[in-house]
Amino acid sequence: MEKKADIQSQHHKKQVHLFYCADCEDLARKVAAHSDLITLQSINWRNFDDGFPNLYINNAQEMRGQHVAFLAAFSSPGVIFEQLSVIYALPRLFVASFTLVLPFFPTGSFERMEEEGDVATAFTMARILSNIPISRGGPTSLVIYDIHALQERFYFGDHVLPLFETGIPLLKQRLHQLPDSDKVVCTKVREESVSGSGAAKVSAYVTHGVFPKRSWERFTRKSDGSGNAFAFFWITDSCPLTVKAIANKPPFEVLSLAGSIADALQI
């Protein structure tokens, strides 16, 4: 009976064709390595002389009737337009379904107005993504990790189905791999305060290592300039430019979302 159940489970899984932006190539390859059901596809990311995108989706006709996904990274305003152009085009290729994986929702921390005149850019971005064309299979599935505020779910319209995932299981798994010792989890505290309270070692985790203007460098040393401020500083690969910047630089360690993304593509 178990063997029959396994066969039925495999039968219901989707063969997914995964496109990706240029910054996400490394992550896309890791996602594909997690499953034989994921096939990488490519896009020619070019520009005209005036700087506007000159894009081409390879194997476009072969995507008809297939399950298609796109792995995006809105790492700066300058790359959003070219990726949106592809995101809007893919569902129109008569695909069976379309999934957009946007690990980091960049405008999420500005989700509300504090005073008249503020522009809640998170709502603007949600409206843009809500207008992704419907594919033959229905609304677009939108996968986002650890969005700033859960109420942002209601910013999206009916043309997309937001799927909110989290990187916390990766942290728990990594903690179990550390040598046996008592652990205390603190949230939103200062490293000096924890160390001053007698902690033998202090480590930190954020799902999205944005770190604008190379601010990650502050965490490679203590405030007095000596040693590392943290034993470990874990981030995920949701922000690919940061991952490249902190490569082989202690105390940083990258926990990859690849396996979680591969699983999400089967939902």
TrEMBL record:
GO terms for biological process: 5-phosphoribose 1-diphosphate biosynthetic process; purine nucleotide biosynthetic process. It comes from the Eukaryota. GO terms for cellular component: cytoplasm; ribose phosphate diphosphokinase complex. It catalyses: D-ribose 5-phosphate + ATP = 5-phospho-alpha-D-ribose 1-diphosphate + AMP + H(+). SUPFAM superfamilies: PRTase-like (SSF53271). Residues 17-131 form the Ribose-phosphate pyrophosphokinase N-terminal domain. Keywords: Nucleotide biosynthesis. Signal peptide: none annotated. The keyword Zinc does not apply. One of its GO terms (molecular function) is magnesium ion binding. Transmembrane segments: none annotated. Belongs to the ribose-phosphate pyrophosphokinase family. This is Ribose-phosphate pyrophosphokinase N-terminal domain-containing protein.
